[in-house]
Amino acid sequence: MKLLLLLLSCSGKGEDVPVAPKSLVTYNVGLAVGFVPAARDRADQAFAAIAALEDDVVCLQEIWLPEHVSAMQAAALDSFPHQYFPEPSQDVAESAACLAEDLDPLIECADTNCADACEDELVDCIFDSCSTPFLLLPYECMDCAMAMVGGEVSDVSDTCLSNGVSFAYGGSYGTGLLSKWPIKSTELLTMESTTNRRGVIHAVIEAPDGDMDVYCTHLTAVFTRIPYPSFEGSWEEEQGAQISEMRDWIDSSAGTGRVVLMGDMNTGPEGEGIDGEVAAHWDLLSPGYTTPYLDGAPTCTYCDNNPLNGGDHDGGVVIDHIMLRGMGGSFTAERILDQSTTALSCEVEIPATLSDHYGVRVEISP
């Protein structure tokens, strides 16, 4: 029987082949150093948990730093021999993003009020204590300053007073694919974005019952506290444009007739016990797709009671999605990677989970 399936899959006639079991996972690992607490200390725990997964294809988000990408690839190599993480792509300006007279008030305020803030406290300290000089920055300067997340205050002046940059973490996309099955081809759509590079990975993966088009992404978040560093546009408009571009690209690039779209979409519908997150954008993203996790009785994937998000009240959103089109079989879905742990933040052990998000698994059965 296995030989028959293999011969049929090689023939390219996927519609004649019985559906083979598949298990898919999406997971935002939350390793935004300087933005999500305890990122450095959580990394190895998260990599070990991901490497231990027995699923077939995994879409990862928020593995930003090169050393974290390398560590993830090494940890998962035996379990997932086929991997793709896009190379970073930074925009470097030919001239300074900031003038000293614009930036100096922010630097002086941070030196006065945030000198003792550790890596996990610095962003909150600046927004709490230095919001006025930050908001008074010219947009190009603000954009560069925001791209220094995860660094020190001195990095802002060292970089933005010389050659400004546009994207955090060296222009990393933060995304990657792990697969037990061969990856036949990859391509990357780079989308317009602010502060963090945003893109869509497209991989044609050779499943036992034929090829399938797998897309992995992480769309722009619609922030409320963080200002949009441009005179025109907004976080919400940026996300909406990404959704439209991504859907059009999938329609033009998917050639197998079977589409899997996974990732942290930063949008999701309202439901019982679930808050909506830019719910109007979910109505733009979801038509034509089946979303098995939402078809059940979903619990939040980005939750208020996750200790990395505050941990003091119930509620949350479903923004981590596995979306299917043209996939045969029956579907089951569950939340995973939601176990409790501890981690070091500012040299203090805190209650934690592996990430500020939880993962989603979808299993496809004949």
Tell me the layout of helices and strands.
Elements: H1 2-11, E1 22-31, H2 39-51, E2 57-63, H3 66-76, E3 82-84, H4 100-113, H5 122-129, H6 131-135, H7 139-146, H8 153-160, E4 176-179, E5 183-191, E6 198-207, E7 210-218, H9 235-253, E8 259-264, H10 279-285, H11 292-295, E9 302-303, E10 316-317, E11 320-325, E12 330-336, E13 340-345, E14 348-353, E15 359-365
Parallel strand pairs: 1-2, 7-8
Antiparallel strand pairs: 1-15, 2-4, 3-4, 5-6, 6-7, 8-11, 9-10, 12-15, 13-14
Helix pairs in contact: 2-3, 4-8
Structural class, by secondary structure, is alpha+beta
CATH architecture grouping of the largest domain: 4-Layer Sandwich
Q: In sequence order, what are the helices and strands, one letter per element?
A: HEHEHEHHHHHEEEEHEHHEEEEEEE
Count of helical segments? 11
What is the residue-mean pLDDT, rounded to a whole number? 94
Terminal CA distance reads 14 Å
Main β-sheet: number of strands, strand sense, barrel status? 6 strands, mixed
Please tell me what the overall shape is.
Answer: globular
Tally of DSSP β-strands? 15
Low-pLDDT stretches = 1-15
Look up the CATH topology of the largest domain: Deoxyribonuclease I, Chain A
Spell out the key features of this protein.
single chain, 366 residues, alpha+beta, Deoxyribonuclease I, Chain A, 6-stranded mixed beta sheet, 5-stranded mixed beta sheet, 11 helices, 26% strand, disordered N terminus
